[in-house]
């Protein structure tokens, strides 16, 4: 798809970093993650294969993979699919090639990765074809397969289809049970379709003999919607049905109060937990530290942290993360760094969240070079920056007008270790409109083509903004080429002034 850029004779960007957008053909690239949480594997084999897949065009990919001397195993294939997560089309090409391999047979987990990627690309026909293929090979489908499909439909705005998937499980040889029922409730609640989840819960709670997990999911759903009275009603029903509320129940309601900015009610609820001799745990205190802190009560947040230690509860990494985030947002990033070093000094190993919170805090305070140092530090300690890490730093560089540095990080992402996602492209495309220069809008157009080639589905606003920007800066031919390309892909555009 990006080959078409060679047909466009446009003004070229002036900065050296932008020369990468005279894209090295072939440069085929995708979309972002949800159902599968991606942590890049460390194996050199899967990194090598992923890089080869990225650098091959569709016609040469089959030959490239055939010539490799790797022993294909389910573990290796899964890791390659994870590395290619943010390049859905390439991941599916890789998966389909191996389907024709003479000795290797895809595992259930590989099929589920492919189904997840297909559904994320909204290619539901391919996703269901893969489900049928699983069944033919007697590899499934499993309850997880339907959980993936349900979540993808729900996050794609098709909650009714998600419910239909759950209700049709038995038609594909997979019976519904309490776990699958809890899963669909959770999917609906987390996509803020709590009323729908509530109706489903009322209809089937007798059939599936709902447990504390079911009730906790519903309570959390209402809390996410900031409707704590409804969450309390769920807990009341639990007790009436003889189901004992768990610490998850109490912590969910406590977090719900904080989310609704009901600080006094949250404190009273905490005291009531103590009065009832609930086994207050580290999650409870972490919720309090975070809740008071983000509400601006930093001193109170610190006092809760100190009280926790005094009572003999050992803070977790998550507790430190909560306190560091509070200090970054509501206090001073230098104080956050002191807590970070204290945490490391006590033998805690910072995780990805810890580093992301600190890096965001440094960026927000304008300490960009220090943020880059922390990115290097996390890699030295075996914690790879995620796409969210890169996106934060790229965004702040772009906001500061340091576009070369932002594109430098973007180029680093393209090596296959951490591929850019939809947010990355949106950040860079938006940055190209700041100076309103012709060459910048050409870059925005090329980014748009690249993101479509990777399987992302940009919003109509983004398409229209780029196309109109190209027209207004004298790049009408390029705009027309993008419009023709997208028409072939079936994308309907409106309000484009050509």
Automatic annotation (TrEMBL):
InterPro entries: PPR_rpt, TPR-like_helical_dom_sf
Gene3D superfamilies registered for this protein in UniProt: Tetratricopeptide repeat domain
Residue stretches of each PPR repeat: 211-245, 246-280, 281-315, 316-350, 351-385, 386-420
Record keywords: Repeat
A GO cellular component entry from the record: chloroplast
GO terms (BP aspect): chloroplast-nucleus signaling pathway; mitochondria-nucleus signaling pathway
PANTHER family linked: PENTATRICOPEPTIDE REPEAT-CONTAINING PROTEIN GUN1, CHLOROPLASTIC, PPR_LONG DOMAIN-CONTAINING PROTEIN
Family per similarity comment: Belongs to the PPR family. P subfamily.
Name this protein carries in UniProt: Pentatricopeptide repeat-containing protein At1g74900, mitochondrial
Species per Swiss-Prot/TrEMBL record: Cicer arietinum (Chickpea)
Origin organism lineage: Eukaryota, Viridiplantae, Streptophyta, Embryophyta, Tracheophyta
